[in-house]
Predict the structure.
Amino acid sequence: SGLILSGHTHGGHIDVIPGMTANLFRKLGAPYLKGFYRVGESMLYVSCGVGSSSVPIRAGSPAEVAILTLHAHPAPGDIA
């Protein structure tokens, strides 16, 4: 298992109807739009990022700076 950090997708720029943007991106072959996903044995986090690209709008998909706190799991046999 592992952690994959990825970004940024701008959250699809426009996400005013819940699920519609995510469904469109999945149909276009991009299933990971924003947030956490389980991918096989790993966890994937996709950030929305802080800006915009050639489309200077963001609706329903706010900019973000993700702060993640990572904790190591003790190895088998270690005393926690």
The longest strand covers residues 42-47. The beta strands are 3-7, 35-39, 42-47.
